[in-house]
Hints:
This protein is an all-alpha fold. About 65% of the residues lie in helices and about 0% in strands. The longest helix is centred in the last third of the chain and has 34 residues, at about 155-185.
Amino acid sequence: MVEEEKVGLLEALLVGMEKTDDGGVENGKTRFWGKATGINWCENDYEQSEYVAEFWNTITNLGFVIVGFYGLYLCWKLKLPARFSALSYCLIGLGLTSGFFHATLLWSGQKLDESFENVVLVLLYHSDSTSQKIASIHSLVVVLGIFLITAFLFCEIHLIGIAILTLTKVRREAALAQLRVGENIRLG
């Protein structure tokens, strides 16, 4: 049996290494879905089920689906703008594609998961804009980049950048809202 090279998360992200081609066999067990991508997450593959590579990572993605459906319900009930429905649909898509990726560890699942992760953050970042044209173009460019640009870590660089920008914007908006509430209490 060929000794498989273990590739850690940081190494896979930094240098893009993949597991050696072992024909879909790991630790003497055949992987139901075949060869995995180079990124191996926090749990042993196929430990809970012979059909699901990362069982707990797969199951926890139901949270995104539930939150997405609840968001759609709120959009309908409160008649929120379409951008919030788009965000809710993308949360559902994130839960489904991330679940698919962690269940199979296939490259296509990884790219779909990365696409929805990025698009959710793009939509959050642009959610205060009345025109969603920029958010749509930004999302399209990101998804194309994730699937087409493999020479450098396009997905990871964008994901970290948009996450920092989004968190900074949310923090600023929360601070402004807190100031407004404080002013209303003093004036009231």
